Amino acid sequence: MGHARGLSTARMPHRHPRRILLAATGLSPQIVTETLYALGASEMRGSEPFIPTEVHIITTGHGAQIARTALLHPDGGQFHALLADYPALGRPAFDATHIHVIEDKSGRPLPDIRTPDENAAAADAITALMARFTHDPQAALHVSIAGGRKTMGFYLGYAFSLFARPQDELSHVLVSVPFESHPDFFFPPATPRRLPTREGQHLDTADARITLARIPVVRLRHGQPRDLLDGHASFGDTVAAIQQSLAPPQLNIDLPRRQVLCGTTAVQLPPQLIAWLAWWAHNAQQGLGPQSWRSADWSAFLSLYRRVVGIDAVAYERAQQRLSEDAAEQKAFFEQSNAKLERSLQNQLGLAAAPYLLATSGKRPHTARALALDAPAITLHT
C-alpha cells in the first residue's frame, strides 16, 4: 500500500513541494505569462492546478534583456501584473537570477542562435539545466516548448524526453487568433481592456482564449548514462551514446594498454575488471558456453589478470589468494566481480550497455552467466 501511494504522488505534480516552470523565450516573453495563466486556469475552474513555486527561462542575451523589461520591470512588468490580477497563482519566485542566458565557449552571452556552434551551445545549456532541475526528487518540472527559436523548442523537448520523471510534464500553450501575434497581449487581464491593432481596429481581451496542450513523450531517463543525469555530458555526446546503443555492438579489449572499447566508447575499468571482462570475452571466443563459479577456470582469469597488472602485483596477489581459498570465497569473488562489472558498464554506457552485460541461464542454485556477444563481435588483444 505504501508503495502504491508513493507512485501515485510521483505522478501528481501539484503535490510536490517544489514546482518549476521552465520555458525558452526569445523576442516574445509572453510565453511565460500565457503559460502561467493557463496553468492556473484550472484553479479558476475548481480543479487541481499545477501552480509553480518558481519560474525559470532560458534565452539569449538579447532575449534576456527583453524578458527583464517586459516581465520584471517595476513599472509595468507583466509578470507582476499577472500575479496582481490572479492571486490564485501565488507568488512564484522569478527574478533576474532565474533568467539563464546561453553562452558561447568563452562564457560570453549569445545575442542570437544562428550558427551550428550557437545551436550546440543552446543544446548543452538546455541539457545542463534539465539535469539540474530533475536531480531534485522533491521537484516537479513543467516545461513549455512554445517560445524561443524552433531549435530551442526542439532541444527542450528532446532533453525532456531524456530526463523526465513521472512527475514532470511537457506542454505547448495555444493562444487564439489574433491575440497570439499581438505584441501587447500577455494574458487576459481580470478587467478586460481594448488593444489597438495595426489596422486601426481594437481587440477585446475578454475574447482571448488560452489553452495548454500537454504533450505525451517517450521517457528515456531509465538507463541513461550517469554522466548525463548528473549534468556532466553534453547534448551531442548523449545523442551519440544513444545512437551507439542502436548500432551493432563491438567489444575491443587491449590488455597491455588497459583499454576497453564498447562500440566507439572508451569504458574506464580498474585492472581487475578489465581482466574479468577479458575472461568472459575469451570464453565467448572459445565457445565455452555459460559459466558458474563452480565451473570457472580461475587459472585462465589469473593469466589474463597478470597481463594487465604487469609488475604491480599487489592486487593480483590478493585476488590469487582469494581464489585459492574455499568455495565460499570463490563464489563471493565471482558474484562480486559480475556485479561490479555490470554496475560500471551501466553507469558509463546507460542503454548502450545492454549488449555487453552478462546473460543469465539456468535456475538457482545452478545459474550460469555468459557474454551474449557473438565471437566475431569481440576483439581481444593479449
Structure in words:
With 382 residues, the protein is of the alpha/beta class. The chain folds into 2 domains: 2-240, no CATH class; 249-381, Arc Repressor Mutant, subunit A (Orthogonal Bundle). The protein contains 12 helices and 14 strands. The strands form 4 sheets. It has a 6-stranded mixed β-sheet, sandwiched between helices. α2 (30-44) links the parallel β1 and β2. The longest helix has 23 residues, at 327-349. The chain is elongated, with a radius of gyration of 28 Å.
Features:
Arc Repressor Mutant, subunit A, 4-stranded mixed beta sheet, 16% strand, alpha/beta, 6-stranded mixed beta sheet, 382 residues
Q: What spatial order of strands do you see in the largest sheet?
A: 3-2-1-4-5-8
Shape: elongated
Give the strand tally: 14
Number of domains: 2
> In whole angstroms, how far apart are the ends?
54 Å
Along the chain, the helix and strand elements come as: HEHEHHEHEHEEEEHHEEEHHHHEEE
Give the structural class: alpha/beta
Write the layout of secondary structure elements.
Blueprint: H1 2-10, E1 18-24, H2 30-44, E2 54-59, H3 61-72, H4 78-85, E3 99-101, H5 116-134, E4 139-144, H6 150-163, E5 169-175, E6 194-196, E7 202-204, E8 210-214, H7 226-229, H8 235-245, E9 251-254, E10 259-262, E11 265-267, H9 271-285, H10 298-309, H11 314-323, H12 327-349, E12 358-361, E13 368-371, E14 378-381
Parallel strand pairs: 1-2, 1-4, 2-3, 4-5, 9-14
Antiparallel strand pairs: 5-8, 6-7, 9-10, 10-11, 12-13
Helix pairs in contact: 5-6, 9-10, 10-11
